[in-house]
Design goal:
alpha/beta; six-stranded mixed beta sheet
């Protein structure tokens, strides 16, 4: 019985408690609501503490857990329910001013309050609040801020479009963006990154900066941080972590500011790049050196150029401010002068624009322009620290050059005037004279070394290659200013190097302090009267007076005892300046382009025992016995009228003939094989050959048993001028491509009897062809060498009747210049290919009615067709579509 009683108690107790709870609800409404309000306050306090913890975590790059976010949502919903119920209770209290007599209503409010109290207590004790935040996985693309400049405007950006196109090509893996410092490469990389926000093409896009001091560990650390991966000091273990993550995903790595080869595989980047299975693997890098593109095996390159005039103005205006520009009517014009000096370099435009922000007086602008014209940009910028200046940031390119020799070569380029194209040959000779190219066996080796140095500077974006003529380079104005800043001890000794564009350098203090003075392309008639005491203690070692055509006196030059380099070429001198004989330290003398007829009988300079390779002298026609005393003479440019004279020169053991002009030959036939041109030393060194003013009727290029493999392998320029009787150039036993393996420039003028020059078709390296005043020439290149004597029109008709199959022709030809060819009717057959052609220029060729190509083979690199408007309108076309397709390339000339 007792057992049954206990069982009944256990079974009936819950029921009893439930009934009692239901019966007491109407009488406990106030108590339950007050308890709920108290619990609510505790819950709000806890919520505020959690929110504060979340804010602190977010400042550390973390984010709230999903569970905690769910707890916060529940708290907010419960709070709303509690507030609604409490408000309803208060309204009933205000209505009755006491306990409500409505038991049903009291029951409902009390029960709801009790149930909500349980919910609040559950939330107060919830385990989800223990872990507030976690470090989140990074988004696929992390947006990076892009400078709000014209270089990052929403307008179409050709470089950006090209980069995105390459990235989307499956077969492309490594893309290189290169250009000079401060030109906008980093901005372009940032825009590439932001272009993939919301784009599912890649699972992750990673931006990493290499910089000059880049190490494998540094780049791995940055990649691991961007991907939120475990970091490890051991390179191999870190590489494995990176590889395991990226190998399962499509990725785009944007690597900024690379200065040398970086083994990405060793860093953990999965290879091969491109499209591998379902995954895309792409790398885009930026660098100042095209050599780095080669080291990284880049297959698609994009060169970032300086801004054009319009974009440069927009960028500068944005930085200087419209208020400053419009503050005075003269300032807009002066601002454009500033922009011209900065030559479209974004970095310089930005820093200079900021510096000019408060300058509203035109005299301040004129002062700044004067500083810029004297290579003193650093004095205009007024930045807070040296590290922020344009020169300092560009100097990284200079410092990264591989040798002191290359750095000296770069600095020496600043001796040419601003905006002046520099002839590569003249630049290389300058380097020889300065002792920067030495230890060479012959002149050809020296020039090869020089061209390699030029190429290194072009590849480092410190020199600019001419797009029109390969023989020219130039320095960007800002880079030239930086070079002078470096040469002048970071601007501390402005008189150390004096160059064209500086203030007139005739102050005796300047001549005393200067180590190099370049006054080329000036109007100097005589050197200033420098006191002997000043000159004798002068540090001046280099003096360049090239192309001062009125120069007549060298004054007290013999007193500059430290002078080792003297260039007085193209100055119109008729007598050898005897004062030079006292310059016992002189190692380089350039007299080219003067009318000097003889050397002095005593020339101690050349009879010294010094065998330095810099004893290079470029002389006009001289009495040949006078050359025999020039014991250290290594290179010679000379014009001869008697072949026997040159044979004597060839016999001088240490002398190389680099440039040769042959004039007034009396013979009616000239054979290359039987002449001095078959001499081995000539073949190795002769780079420039000119035939001028001779009565030769035929030139014979003939192979022989004695010379079965002879060729002029160093010859780059060939000129045939005023050979009025020359009728033909005959080829026997030798072909043009073997004889002239390196010929890049051909100039023919005043050859009245010459019918065509079809042999140029087979010159593999020909880049520029100029033909002027050849009044018998009807077709520049006949369709076949066997048809030289046929009428050009007949040839064209015959060839039209059959299919022509030709091997690739004119693979390197970029420039064609035709002038005063009164009878020419055709350049060549229209089926010939011109894959490298940039421009055709035509003057006074009234019978030339066709261009040398058809709609199907328009040169892909064509940029310009220039000629008089009458000539262009007289051309005959296959159809209007062909004419319209070429119309954009036409540029009228007079």
């Amino acid at each position: 019985m007792e057992l049954l009683s206990k069982v009944a108690d256990l079974a009936l107790a819950p029921l009893f408690n439930f009934v009692m709870r239901q019966l007491t609800y109407p009488f406990k409404a106030g108590d339950n609501v007050r308890a709920l309000q108290s619990a609510r306050e505790h819950l709000i306090t806890k919520k505020d503490d959690v929110v504060e913890k979340i804010e602190i975590a977010e400042r550390n790059g973390q984010k709230p857990t999903h569970q905690l976010q769910g707890w916060l949502d529940e708290v907010e919903a419960t709070k709303t329910q509690v507030d609604t119920m409490v408000e309803k209770y208060k309204q009933r209290w205000l209505c009755f001013k006491c306990f409500s007599p409505n038991c049903c209503s009291n029951y409902s409010l009390s029960k709801t309050a009790a149930e909500l109290l349980l919910d609040v207590q559950r939330l107060l004790n919830d385990e989800r609040t223990k872990e507030v935040a976690i470090t989140p996985a990074p988004p696929p693309v992390q947006e990076v801020p892009v400078p709000t400049t014209s270089t990052s405007s929403p307008n179409p950006n050709p470089n950006l479009e090209e980069a995105l196109r390459y990235i989307k090509e499956d077969q492309v893996g490594m893309i290189g963006i290169w250009g000079m410092g401060g030109v906008g490469k980093t901005t372009l990389l940032q825009r590439i990154n932001n272009s993939f926000i919301g784009d599912p093409s890649f699972d992750v896009v990673i931006v990493a900066t290499a910089s000059q001091s880049c190490t494998m560990g540094k780049i791995q650390k940055e990649i691991a941080q961007k991907l939120n991966l475990q970091q490890h000091e051991d390179v191999s273990r870190q590489a494995k972590i990176i590889f395991n993550f990226l190998s399962k995903r499509s990725f785009l790595l944007l690597l900024d500011d690379l200065w040398g080869r970086l083994d990405l595989q060793h860093a953990g980047i999965p290879f091969p790049l491109g499209m591998v299975g379902e995954h895309k693997r792409k790398v885009v890098l930026t660098t100042r050196s095209i050599a780095v593109c080669g080291q990284m095996e880049v297959r698609k390159k994009i060169k970032v150029e300086c801004l054009n005039e319009k974009d440069a103005w927009s960028l500068f205006l944005e930085k200087v401010g419209e208020e400053t520009i419009s503050s005075h009517p003269l300032i807009p014009r002066l601002a454009k002068d500033v922009i011209k000096e900065l030559e479209g370099l974004p970095l310089a435009l930005i820093t200079t624009g900021r510096a000019m922000y408060e300058k509203k007086d035109p005299r301040q602008w004129e002062y700044s322009i004067n500083l810029l014209r004297n290579s003193r940009l650093h004095e205009v910028e007024h930045t807070g620290t040296e590290e922020e200046t344009t020169f300092y940031r560009l100097k990284f390119s200079y410092d990264s050059l591989k040798s002191d020799t290359l750095r000296e070569c770069f600095l020496s380029c600043s001796m040419w005037p601003e905006d002046r194209w520099i002839n590569k040959g003249r630049l290389i000779v300058c380097w020889m004279g300065l002792g920067l190219i030495k230890e060479f066996g012959n002149m050809s080796e020296a020039y090869n070394t020089g061209h390699t140095l030029v190429g290194d500077l072009i590849g480092a974006c410190l020199l600019e290659q001419s797009q029109q003529y390969d023989i020219h380079v130039r320095m960007h104005d800002v880079l030239r200013d930086m070079a002078l800043w470096i040469a002048r001890d970071n601007g501390k000794n402005k008189n150390k190097w004096v160059v064209p564009g500086d203030d007139t350098p005739f102050d005796k203090e300047i001549w005393h302090e200067a180590e190099r003075i370049s006054l080329m392309f000036g109007k100097i008639q005589e050197l200033p009267p420098i006191p002997s005491a000043t000159a004798s203690s002068s540090k001046l070692a280099t003096l360049i007076l090239h192309s001062n055509y009125g120069l007549r006196e060298l004054g007290n030059i013999r007193a500059f005892v430290a002078l080792t380099y003297l260039d007085i070429s193209n100055c119109g001198l008729v007598c050898f300046p005897i004062e030079i004989c006292g310059l016992v330290q002189l190692q380089y003398l350039n007299l080219e382009g003067n009318d000097i007829q003889s050397l002095p009988e005593v020339l101690d300079l050349y009879e010294s025992d010094d065998t330095d390779d810099r004893n290079l002298t470029y002389l006009p026609s001289l009495v040949f016995k006078e050359l025999e005393c020039l014991n250290n003479l290594r290179g010679l440019r000379i014009c001869i009228e008697d072949i026997s004279q040159l044979n004597k020169i060839i016999e001088l053991p240490s002398l190389s003939v680099r440039s040769l002009a042959i004039s007034r030959l009396e013979s009616t036939s000239f054979s290359f094989t039987s002449s001095f041109l078959s001499d081995k030393k000539i073949q190795l060194n002769l780079a420039e050959l000119c035939f001028v003013n001779s009565n030769v009727t035929q030139v014979v290029m003939e192979g022989s048993q004695q010379h079965p493999t002879w060729h002029l392998g160093a010859l780059e320029r060939l000129m045939i001028i005023n050979m009025r009787c020359l009728e033909e150039i005959i080829w026997k036993g030798v072909v043009p491509r073997e004889l002239f393996q390196a010929l890049g420039f051909l100039f023919i003028k005043g050859c009245d009897m010459l019918k065509n020059i079809s042999w140029v078709l087979h010159l593999p390296c020909l880049k520029e062809l100029r033909v002027i005043k050849c009044c018998s020439m009807r077709q520049l290149i006949a369709c076949g060498l066997e048809n030289h004597g046929e009428n050009a029109a007949d040839i064209s008709e015959k060839e039209e009747e059959k299919e022509i199959t030709l091997t690739p022709t004119f693979t390197c030809l970029k420039h064609i210049f035709l002038s005063d060819l009164s009878e020419i009717i055709s350049i060549c057959h229209s089926m010939f290919a011109f894959p490298a052609l940039h421009d055709i220029v035509v003057y006074n060729c009234p019978k030339l009615k066709n261009l040398p190509f058809r709609p199907v083979n328009i040169p892909s690199k064509l940029k310009r067709i220039a000629g008089p408007k009458e000539w262009w309108e007289s051309l005959e076309w296959e159809d209007d579509i062909f004419r319209n397709s070429l119309q954009p390339f036409y540029k009228q000339n007079s």
